[in-house]
Amino acid sequence: MLQKLKQFKAKHPFTSLMLVAIAVRILAVIFVPGFGSNHDMQHTSLIQGLLEWLKAKMGMGDSQGMMFLSRAFYATISLFTVSMIYRICDLLANDKSKAWNIAMIPTICVIMPSFGIIDNVSFFLGLPLLLYGANVVLRQRVLIGANMTEKVHRTSYAIAGLMLGLSLCIWYQSAFIVLAILLMLCLKRDFKGALMTLIGIVITLLLVWLLLTILNVNPWSYIQL
């Protein structure tokens, strides 16, 4: 049995990783004691404001059902974090076994806010978007490094920018990492890629700003240094 599991892992590393991640999350959602992640509102932020607004509009209280719903939501989001970490490690190391071993850390330790190594809601929800954008940019750089320029698409940088922009809207402290990504592209003399990424970021920020304006919400109230 153990040998078959090892063979399955060797043949399907990503699938096996996600199966482990799903199993861990099912156990955490059902069996971890205490009310859990539904009370994780440490400071004012855009995503927390949205969650509170949804609760008020839909009449959702602090029921047991709401606890399981919020836990399931966070656990599902965390699967994207695990997936992106695996993808990034695979690109950097070009070794699926090493990528699997590294991705096991968030598989066990990143499940929901206040249950693992991340306890900030905005950080927790913004991280997969940030990692997705970084993964797209990194993939383009790997293709360029392998002289596979025919597979490099500038629109991919724009899509990365859209995701990075969303991560900024949810977790504004990610601006430091986003700026580092843009700086890296400039240092690599990939100015077109940096420009397309920046355009994607600006488009997302403008759209979110417009939406908040329509809803008569002051965006600056969610930025507290």
Question: What's the SSE blueprint?
Answer:
Layout: H1 2-11, H2 13-31, H3 46-58, H4 64-93, H5 96-109, E1 110-112, E2 115-116, H6 121-145, H7 154-170, H8 175-187, H9 191-214
Antiparallel strand pairs: 1-2
Short descriptors:
single chain, mainly alpha, 73% helix, flat
Short description:
The protein is mostly helical and 225 residues long. It has helices at 2-11, 13-31, 46-58, 64-93, 96-109, 121-145, 154-170, 175-187, 191-214, and strands at 110-112, 115-116. It contains 9 helices and 2 strands; from the N terminus they run αααααββαααα.
How would you characterize this protein structure?
The protein has about 220 residues and is mainly alpha-helical. Helices cover about 75% and strands about 0% of the residues. Strand 1 and strand 2 form a beta hairpin. About 5% of the residues have low confidence.
Question: Which stretches are low in confidence, meaning pLDDT under 50 for 5 or more residues running?
Answer: 38-43
- H/E order of the elements? HHHHHEEHHHH
Residue fraction in strands: under 5%
User: Structural class per helix/strand content?
Assistant: mainly alpha
Q: Classify the helix fraction into a percent range.
A: over 70%
Mass-distribution shape: flat
Mean pLDDT comes to 83
Give me the count of strands.
Answer: 2
Radius of gyration: 19 Å
How far is the N terminus from the C terminus?
Answer: 53 Å
Individual helix count: 9
Which strands sit side by side, in order, in the main sheet? 1-2
Biggest pleated-sheet summary? 2 strands, antiparallel
